[in-house]
# Entry
Amino acid sequence: MTWKLQGITGEQTGREISIDRDMLIGRHQAADIVLQQAEISRKHAAFYLRDQALWVQDLNSSNGTFVNDVKIENEALLKEGDIVQFASLKFSVLQPARTLDDAEEKAPVQTPPAEAAVQPSEAVAVSETAQSAAPVTAAAQKMNDQGMPDLKERHEGVQLSRDGMPQNVAVPKPAPIPEGVDISAVKPDPAPIPVEQPVTQVEQEKEQQKNASVGLMSVIVIIILAVLAWLFFK
# Structure
């Protein structure tokens, strides 16, 4: 909610100020609402929004803050039509109108009836299912017309075990190898060729650091041996 102030005195007459958050009023340039009159303190007062309600608080100003011509000591709750005054500057308080969002929040929620009509998308889904089932039914009818035996009739000639498994069922043999085909001439798959993995930038840096460390240690060892040799033969 956004409250508004409308100036009704002096140079502020007709000026509208929107208040949608906590705001500081004063003569200082850092204030949210700057009033340049000399009678206004640098930090004169402050507006606060608490649960959508507007409050004004005096910040120990030199010339005081008034609500309906009554000087406030600390803070006061503002409402529609109040006159808030900073020194001699007066403003009328305008309460924000109810927004569309607030009206929707308070509107009752209407529940749909128990028996809802079939949505167009559901009708399309049913139609597509019927169309897909039609070819299957036509194919089955065609098989019956051609004299294909029923499922029960085909099972009568098959002996079943106690577990319900068919017996004496011939296992199909693999297809014969065509004449003139030499199986031994089939070449095996070529052996995979190893691919050398590229050395990454990080590995190169590590290798260089390792070589530098080894070189530095070698130099230190040589210097120590040279010093020991010099002390020994001195």
Notes: The mean pLDDT is 76. The longest helix spans residues 201-233.
